[in-house]
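Support request, please re-run this one:
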Amino acid sequence: MRVSFVIPTWNRSDLLALALASIRAQTLAAAEVIVVDNGSADGSPQLARAGGARVIELGRNRGFSYAVNRGIEAAGGELVAVVNNDLEIEPDWTERLAAALERKGGWFATGKVLDHARRDRIDGAGDAICRGGTAWRLGQGRPDGPLFDQPRATFFPAATALLARRQFFERVGGFDEAFFAYLEDVDLGLRAALMGLAGVYEPSAVAYHRGGASWGAWSAQSVRWMTRNQILLLAKFYPASWQPRVWGPVVAAQALWGAMALRRGRWLAYLGGLAAGVASSVAARRSGAGWRRNGARLATVLAASEAELERFQRATGYDRYWRWYFQLVPPRPPARPEAP
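Re-run finished. Output below.
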């Protein structure tokens, strides 16, 4: 099957060059590479063209979601790979994910992502979300080990490094452009889960990520977008009838997130994100009207995801945030996601 690579980028041409080189080294060659440039000022479009990529120039920073959607629309392959510009992939990454899709029949596949600077550490082994609306990249910061070498079904297509069937985006839709950046893949995963379109986690497909290369870890902009988009997830997907049932998890998750932002000295960014989330919640509520009709299905998905998150935390040692969350909100035993 033909594979189209889509790379959204905003400056950091040095990292883009490494990402493109790792794509050119793939054992399953890319049919095309599409770089969607969000108004870079460092020559990234010229570098991409010199490396053989097709470039879509947006002229200004329209956000991760908008850029990726434009790339997917332009892609001609039956399979679409979405990778960050601060990512490098092993030469057999595409081949292994494509084989996993063929073998398991999933709609998308994600692999093991390691920290670029400390390659014995996990950057992410898929995503999970709790009932309170906050998410975690499974295993982030933990030593690599057998726990992360087990293939499994998942509903969450982590957009750092993703291979998906074109029909997946045709059925679920693209990334929600209202999210701009951060949690857009969790939003996509919730929609996939509500439609029963499961993917696979294939640990033998390995990538290396320089986390925070664009905005910086715990930057004011990152905290603002994360805070805002957590509220958008709640507004978009949670039925009004759930309010008594999820009040505890939501209050616990969001209050703990605010406390973390305060501890990092980002309280102004947190308050700005909170205000932006409330201001955008009406539009998010309107856009999610169709998705909120299957509240029973969503409750099952959230319980399964939260239990998976807690299982990884328990096995690897609790982060402070999640220790407090699970003390306040004991996890419920769930049904696991269906194998594709």
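The radius of gyration is 19 Å. The chain has two domains: 3-209, 220-328.
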